[in-house]
Amino acid sequence: MKSLRNTALGLTLGIAGASFALADGHSKELTIAIVNNGHMINMQKVAEAYTEETGVKLNWVSLEEGVLREQVTSDTATGGGQYDIINIGMQEAPIWGAAGWIEPLEFGAEYDVDDMLPAMRNGLSHEGTLYAAPFYGESSMVMYRKDLTDAAGVSIADNDSWDNVKAAAAAIHNPDAGVYGACLRGKPGWGDNMAFITTVVNSFGGAWFDKDYRPTINSDEWKAAMNFYVDLLGNYGPPGSEGNSFNEILALYNEGKCGMWIDATIAASFLTVDGVAYAQSPNAGNPVGANWLWAWAMAVPTGTDNSDEAKAFIEWATSKAYIQAVADHPDFGWGSVPTGTRASTYASADFQAAAPFAAAELAAIESAAPEATDIKPYVGVQFAAIPEFPEVGSAVAQEMAAALSGAKSVDDALAAAQQAADAIMSEAGYY
Asked: What is the pLDDT along the chain (431 residues), one digit of tens a residue?
């Protein structure tokens, strides 16, 4: 199979001579499962050039984050063959690669794998083999309305204390004017509310498991973190926060209803309100910090009949040429390119000019610390890179949402979460 090479075809995005057809003359088709986030939606329009140039028809299955994870995991684990390309992330890629569920990826020299940010390449590899290519990468940071903080006479610093963040949220909270001090994830899911909650727990010095992989959800650190989270969002967040994930909060923010949002750095690409400023994630004293690390990446399930075509598409969709094509596209531009994957993106003067968040995003990604430490025995910031984590995280997520909604007390929710997590880990044979 030829490597896809850069050409002068503009929106054809580096496609050169790749054409795939069946023996009867019909073109190949790829079914691609994607998360319904902005950059993925944009890709569908940009990818029209790919079909024009290669003849490969692209069938998109766009799903909400939690639904995507459930369907992709089920189909891939059972060899269902529903998809040729899947969106997965750093939690799944190394584990699924080691298990043989997804195929290793190797691209041509012009792909320039060394241009990939080390955090992304390492997080999507197992024993040095890349199993998923990052479409966009992210850490987490504070995105706040500086006009509101200035008017209230408060400020938010890099790696600020949670107490100062709460004070700022209180100062800018004005529900009568339709502005809430802090908008944070509350929708249950190991990659939804637990992504944010885990960073708070980390910053308070907590972890999911001890060195023997026994859950530590009933610890003092978890109790302090959850009480803080429920108090902050309950007093200064929008009503119904237990139903809000990334897309819901993005809509609220762009409607001018959020004074502060702590979430994925990729959100900055889609903010349309004026006066947004950025700060590195808050911390309660953990010297390692608390900003997460993630990539929405593309992988090829083992056993697909379209492996070569799927890998060719991924090579194109995660290349420097694709990023340039988004920048050149009349509907998008440099401010809309997928970020968090390549050093060359951040080195671009055009990108720096169009993306005021660029320096803050790169700093967050480079400072994230997924490695195991004395505090946590596992790899991962907002997740644990073990096969059982999605089940554990999903069970705990329901309890934390119940605490946020007021259906349970924090103590009762943590006790139930500890019991559920302990049962899962015990059954899995950790102790």
From this structure: 333 333 323 334 455 445 455 445 557 999 999 999 999 999 999 999 999 999 999 999 999 999 999 999 999 999 999 999 999 999 999 999 999 999 999 999 999 999 999 999 999 999 999 999 999 999 999 999 999 999 999 999 999 999 999 999 999 999 999 999 999 999 999 999 999 999 999 999 999 999 999 999 999 999 999 999 999 999 999 999 999 999 999 999 999 999 999 999 999 999 999 999 999 999 988 877 789 999 999 999 998 999 999 999 999 999 999 999 999 999 999 999 999 999 999 999 999 999 999 999 999 999 999 999 999 999 999 999 999 999 999 999 999 999 999 999 999 999 999 999 999 999 999 99
Q: Which two tokens stand for residue 392?
A: 């554990």
Closest CA to 225 of 290, 167, 138: 290
Place of tokens 């900003």: 291
Q: Give me the torsion for CA of 116, 356, 158, 380, rounded to 10°.
A: -30
CB-based contact 269:333 (threshold 8 Å) = no
Pairing of strands 85-88, 29-35: parallel
In angstroms, what CA-CA distances link 403 with 196, 341, 391, 396, 415? 15, 36, 19, 11, 11
Q: Which residues of 140-165 are buried (b: 16+ CB within 10 A; e: fewer)?
A: bbbbbbeebbeebebebebebebeeb
- CB-CB contact of 230 with 200 (8 Å): no
Please report which helix (H) or strand (E) contains residue 129, including its range. Answer: strand 129-130
CA 108 – CA 1 distance, rounded (Å): 10
Q: What is the pTM of this model?
A: 0.92
Under a CB-based contact definition with an 8 Å cutoff, are residues 115 and 342 in contact?
A: yes
What's the distance, Cα to Cα, between the start and end of the chain in Å? 47
